[in-house]
Amino acid sequence: MPAPIRLRELIRTIRTARTQAEEREMIQKECAAIRSSFREEDNTYRCRNVAKLLYMHMLGYPAHFGQLECLKLIASQKFTDKRIGYLGAMLLLDERQDVHLLMTNCIKNDLNHSTQYVQGLALCTLGCMGSSEMCRDLAGEVEKLLKTSNSYLRKKAALCAVHVIRKVPELMEMFLPATKNLLSEKNHGVLHTSVVLLTEMCERSPDMLAHFRKLVPQLVRILKNLIMSGYSPEHDVSGISDPFLQVRILRLLRILGKGDDDSSEAMNDILAQVATNTETSKNVGNAILYETVLTIMDIKSESGLRVLAINILGRFLLNNDKNIRYVALTSLLKTVQTDHNAVQRHRSTIVDCLKDLDVSIKRRAMELSFALVNGNNIRGMMKELLYFLDSCDPEFKADCASGVFLAAEKYAPSKRWHIDTIMRVLTTAGSYVRDDSVPNLIQLITNSVEMHAYTVQRLYKALLDDISQQPLVQVASWCIGEYGDLLISGQCEEEEPIQVTEDEVLDVLEGLLVSNLSSPVTRGYSLTAIMKLSTRFSSVNRIKKVVSIYGSSIDVELQQRAVEYNALFKKYDHMRPALLERMPIMEKTASNGPTEIVQTNGEAEPSVVEPKHPPPVGQPASQGNDLLDLLGGNDVPVIPTTMPTKPASAGGELLDLLGDLSLGLSLMAFYLFDLSKTVNFLSIGIPPMTAYNKNGLKIDFTFERANPNPNVAVITIHASNSTEADMTDFVFQAAVPKTFQLQLLSPSSNVVPALNQGTVTQVIRVLNQQKQQLRMRIKLTYIHKGSAVQDLAEVNNFPPQSWQ
C-alpha cells in the first residue's frame, strides 16, 4: 500500500478547493483512505493519519472513528505518538463517552513517567477532559506532582488540580498543604498557576476562604515586588513586569478582602500604589488599573481610595479605545449607587459619551446618565437627555423615553416643568413611549388644577402641528374634551392666550376621526371628547350630527360608543350635564389596584378608571395591604369596600341606573350596559349558599343576575351573629382572580347584632365575561367581646347557575 500523503500536503490540497463541494469530495476521499489504513492496523503511519484526522475535525468534519486510534497512540512508547494521541483525546473525547475511561491507566503510568514532557502531556489531558471518576482515581498522582521540585511539572499540576477540584470539590483538602507552599516559589509560571488554584478554592469553599485570608500579607508582598522590581526581559510586557500575574493576584485579593475588615486594611496601601504607579499609556497598564478598580470597589476600602478608583474610571472615559470606555461606563454604573457624589464629578464626560458613534457605549452612557439624575441637576440632565432623544436611533427611543418619564415623576421641580417635559417626549418620540404614558399624563394633568388652561392650550397647538404621534393626540383629545371651555375662554395666565372658536376646535377633533393616521383608540378618544364638549359648547346640533354619523361606523367599538351617546341625547338628555361633567382628581395607586389605568395605544381601549374613595369609618387604613396579604401576592384585582357617593344632580338617577359602577375615564364602561333598555336585576332561581360559618358568625350568599347583561352576577351577603354579644367594626372584604372584575358596595351597617336579631347586608357585583368558574377569597375583621378577630376563607363552591 502506498504511503499516505503528509499533513502539510493535505492542507495545501484542501486550500486549492474552489467550492465547498470540491472540498467535501477531497475530505471524503482522504477519510476513506484513513479508514482503510486503520482497518489494516498500519502502525507506521497511524500518527500521521490521526494528525490529518484532527485537522479535518477542526474544519468541522466528523472524525469520531479515530477515537480508538488515539488511545493506541497514547499507549505507544514513542513521544511523537503520545503527543498526537493525547491531542486527539483532548479534541475527540469527553466524559460523555465511556471510551475515555480506557485512558485512565495510561494516564496514571505517564504521570509517573521518567520524562517530564510525557508527564506534562498526561497532566494537560487530565486537566482538559478528565471526568469525575478519572479525577478521583488520579488525584493522588496530581498531588504528588504538586510537591515535586520541577517547576515545569508544578505549574501544570496546579492547573490540573483546578480541574480536579471543579469535578470533585470534596478532594479540595487533599491539595491544601501543597498549595500553601506554592506561593513561596520564585518561578512566575508556578506563582501564576498557584494563584489560579487558590482563587478556585476560595470561590468554592467558605472554609478555604477563611483559611487563606492569612496569606494576604504574602500576596501583598509578591505584588509589591512585581511593581517595584526593575526591568526583567523574561516577564516584561510593554514596560510592565508580568501584568498577567498582577491581574491574577488582584482578583484573588478582591475575593479575600470582600466583607473582611482586616484583610481589606492590609491591602489598602498596595492598591493605592498600583493605582498611582501603573503606566496608563499602554493597554496592559489599563488592564491592571481596571482590576485594581474592581478590587477597591469590592473590598471594604477607604473612602479616598474609592474616589481614586472612580477617578481612574473617569480617565478611562477619555481614552480613544472604545472597549476601555465601555468597561468604564459599566463599572461606574455598578458603583453609582454607593459612590454617587464621586461619580457626579464626571457627569459632563459621561454626557459627552451620549454622542459616541458606538451604540453599546451610547446605551451604557444613557443608563448611567439616568442613574445620575437627582433633584439638583434635573433641569440640566433632562435638557441633555431630551436632546439625545431627538437625535438617537429608534432602538434607544423607548428606553430613553421611559427613563425621562421616571426621572421627571421623581424629581420634577414644578408641575408645569413636569407637564412640559412629558409633552416634549410625546411630541418627539410618541410612538416609542410605554403603554401607560397616556393615562399617567392624564392623571398628572387632572391633578394639576391650576395648569388646566395652560395644558389644554399647549396640547391644542401641538395637535395643529402634528397628529402622527398617537399618544400625544390621545392626551390632547382627552384634555380638549375635559377643558375645552377654558380653551375657548382664553383664561391662560402662564402664556399668551390664543383666540379659538368652538367650530375650530370641533374641526380639529372631527379631523382626527377621519384621519388615516388615527388608531381606533384615538378615534374613541376624539368621539368622547366631542361628546363631552356638548355640555361645554353651544354647538350641540353639530355634535349630535357627528355622533349620529358614527352610529353606523364599520369600527364596532366606535359604533357602539356613538349609539350609546345618541341614546344619551334622545332618552337621557336631562342627565347629560351631570354625566359629562369633569373628571374628579384621580389618586395614583399600585399597578394592580382598582384605580389602575391601562392603555395599549391602539391595541385595546383604556380600562375603567375608578376614583378612590376614603375608607369608611371604623375601617383600618391598611385595608389595601391586608387584602394583598389575603391574596398572597399581587396577582388578583381587588376593589375595597367604599362608601356610596351620590352626586347632588340629575345624574344621580343614571348612576343608580348603572348601579354605581364607574363610568370611566371617557365613558369606557358603557359597553357593560345597553342604555336603550331599562337595567334591573332579576332573580333567576339560583340557590343560596353558606359561604362562612364559624365562631357564631354566619355569611350567606344570595344571587341575582343583571338584566339585560348576563355577565354581571349580583351577590348579596347576609351576615348574622348567633353569639350573645354584638360584633362591632365589622368589615367584609373579597378578592377574585384577574379574569373577573369585582365591586363591593357599602354595607348596611358595621355592627352585626347578637342572637340573630338582625343581619348586615352588602352587595357584590362580579363581571365574568369569560364565563369561568367563580372563585373568591374573603377576609372578615370585627371586634367581639373587646377582642379583635380576623379570619380568612376561600369560597369555591358557587352554584353553577351563578357563573354559567
UniProtKB/TrEMBL annotation:
Signal peptide: none
Compartments in which it is found: Cytoplasmic vesicle membrane; Endomembrane system; Golgi apparatus
Residue ranges crossing the lipid bilayer per the database entry: none
GO BP annotations listed: intracellular protein transport; vesicle-mediated transport
Domain of life according to the entry: Eukaryota
Keyword NAD: no
Domain GAE: 684-799
Name recorded for this polypeptide: AP-1 complex subunit gamma
Organism: Oryzias sinensis
